[in-house]
Design a protein that fits this description.
Elements lengths: L7 E5 L9 H18 L3 E6 L19 H12 L4 E4 L10 H6 L2 E3 L3 E5 L2 E5 L10 H10 L2 H10 L2 H19 L12 H10 L6 E4 L6 E5 L3 E5 L8 E5 L4 E5 L11
Parallel strand pairs: 1-2, 2-3, 3-4, 6-7, 7-9
Antiparallel strand pairs: 1-10, 5-6, 8-9, 10-11
Length: 260
């Protein structure tokens, strides 16, 4: 892919739309939509790197309520010719055909590889990558299994299932807070994953989310690991202008009340 002059590629992650408290999430959604509208004219492609929603599950004819401003903006982007790629994360793993059909977004459940202006990117959410964390990887495999998805859909009424998922997300957020501390490279599983990958294949940029802490670290002489942070308080993102990739912070037009 070659970018047109003046066009850019944007990467954001961990927005957690629908996160408790609902009033704060709705305000963040409005802030996000305003920011998306401000970058529309220069956006060649948009990547949502997972945990866009704090909880998401699609029944055959039922999806979670809300997010109409965001979904309308994504439909507007794709209908105007701007490709939007959305990755499932550990909070919104159960994305199926609703978002592609209704908004035109392309859904990814695995990291993808892409070349832009001669630069090679590996892009994804990041959960389950890297060495260790065996218990989470086993849990992820269970939740992504077709059998588990069918059982969830057939045994649980949507009202109960969605309430259960939202309660689980709320409890985790109250326990951990919106951000995580910065990890040194030796303890950051995604950094270690990038180092391992470079032993067999070259990428100029590894772009992930999941950790809720913005990071830009060199790997060797000509590769970088970038974590885009989160869109709960910091509103950080990455942008590639065809030559340089930078971490930036979106300006907040009004304060957002949270629990922290």
């Amino acid at each position: 892919m070659i970018l047109e002059p003046g066009k850019k590629v944007y990467f954001i992650s961990d927005i957690h739309l629908g996160m408790y408290p609902v009033e704060g999430s709705r305000q963040r959604e409005k802030e996000l939509v305003r920011w998306l509208e401000s970058i529309r004219h220069e956006t060649a492609m948009l990547f949502l790197l997972g945990d866009t929603f704090d909880f998401w599950y699609e029944y055959r004819k039922v999806v979670p309520k809300g997010f109409v401003r965001f979904l309308a903006q994504m439909a507007s982007f794709t209908e105007s010719g701007i490709p939007v790629h959305i990755f499932s994360g550990n909070h919104d793993v159960w994305m199926f055909d609703y978002l592609p059909r209704e908004t035109g977004m392309v859904v990814h459940h695995e990291p993808m590889e892409l070349e832009i202006n001669g630069k090679k990117f590996m892009i994804g959410h990041g959960d389950g990558l890297g060495p260790g964390d065996i218990s989470y990887k086993m849990m992820k495999a269970v939740f992504r299994s077709k059998l588990m998805q069918r059982l969830f859909a057939s045994w649980l009424h949507p009202n109960f299932a969605l309430s259960l998922g939202q309660a689980w997300s709320k409890s985790r957020r109250l326990k951990k807070g919106p951000t995580r501390p910065e990890l040194p490279p030796g303890q950051d599983q995604l950094f270690r994953f990038a180092v391992q990958t470079l032993r067999s294949r070259h990428f100029d940029y590894f772009l992930f989310g999941h950790y809720h802490f913005p990071s830009d670290q060199p790997i060797g002489l000509n590769s970088r690991y970038i974590n885009t942070g989160e869109w709960i308080q910091a509103n950080t993102y990455a942008v590639f202008d065809g030559q340089e990739l930078r971490l930036e912070k979106a300006p907040a037009s009004s304060p957002v009340k949270t629990l922290w």
